[in-house]
Amino acid sequence: QVQLQESGPGLVKPSETLSLTCTVSGGSITNYYWSWIRQPPGKGLEWIGYIYYTGSTDYNPSLKSRITISVDTSKNQFSLKLSSVTAADTAIYYCARHMTGRNPPLGYWGQGTLVTVSS
Amino acid sequence: DIVMTQSPLSLPVTPGEPASISCRSSQSLLYTNGDNYLDWYLQKPGKSPQLLMYLGFKRASGVPDRFSGSGSGTDFTLKISRVEAEDVGTYYCMQALQGPRTFGQGTKVEIK
């Protein structure tokens, strides 16, 4: 059974860069798409972007100028960097694995990690 | 971006009774291959979202058959034939056809 685990600082200062890593266990990172999704406390879901194991990416245009998603196949991990954060970036951040096929759904999710932006 | 609109936003339900959630998209989610790229997710209280349905009507692995999805183009429905206590949570539809993936606002299902 594939498992995903987010890790990274729970508190980030305004204007700094948020950095999170998703570690995949129980399966290989190869041959799949991997996404980041966030959820502000008490609010709905926002898709941030995805990466294929080869390194190709697609980002939400609303965040594109501030996002970098990367993959490390040797460590079975992928990562998110979000620069110039503000309080509006406070959210639970989830990593997820897509299923297979064309435009596949998000079949496996991590437990999520709360990141608070505050000085 | 494709805008997803769900209704109702809150749905009190009685165990054993049916329930229905609507999801509408601002553009058709029907692709030329005949598939509708519409997924449904359930987020139980305090938990991560989990995949319920994909391509509008296909149940994900392990999803009980009391859940069904229907619709095409811009109008979709998730139905629960007989609600159980474990079905409480927030249901989200999400389009996967084009552009950034976008979610509906969510429908909170709770027991009366």
Give an overview of the whole structure.
The complex is a heterodimer of chains A (119) and B (112). Chain A is mainly β and 119 residues long. Chain A contains no helices and eleven strands. Chain A has strands spanning 3-7, 11-12, 18-25, 33-39, 46-52, 57-59, 67-72, 77-82, 91-98, 106-109, 113-117. In chain A, strands 2, 4, 5, 6, 9, 10 and 11 form a seven-stranded mixed β-sheet that branches. In chain A, strands 1-3-8-7 form a four-stranded antiparallel β-sheet, with no helix packed on it. In chain A, β5 and β6 form a beta hairpin. Chain B is built from no helices and eleven strands. Chain B has strands spanning 4-7, 10-13, 19-25, 38-43, 49-54, 58-59, 67-72, 75-80, 89-95, 102-103, 107-111. The mean pLDDT of chain B is 97. Chains A and B meet through β10 of A and β4, β5 and β10 of B.
Stretches of chain B where pLDDT is under 50 for at least 5 consecutive residues are none
Structural class of chain B: mainly beta
How many strands in all of chain B?
11
- Name the helicity range of chain B: under 10%
Summarize the model shown.
The complex is a heterodimer of chains A (119) and B (112). Chain A is an all-beta fold and 119 residues long.
Topology of helices and strands:
The complex is a heterodimer of chains A (119) and B (112).
Chain A: E1 3-7, E2 11-12, E3 18-25, E4 33-39, E5 46-52, E6 57-59, E7 67-72, E8 77-82, E9 91-98, E10 106-109, E11 113-117
Chain B: E1 4-7, E2 10-13, E3 19-25, E4 38-43, E5 49-54, E6 58-59, E7 67-72, E8 75-80, E9 89-95, E10 102-103, E11 107-111
Parallel strand pairs in B: 2-11
Antiparallel strand pairs in B: 1-3, 3-8, 4-5, 4-9, 5-6, 7-8, 9-10, 9-11
Task: List descriptors.
heterodimer, A: 119 residues, mainly beta, 4-stranded antiparallel beta sheet, 11 strands, B: 112 residues, 7-stranded mixed beta sheet, 0% helix, globular
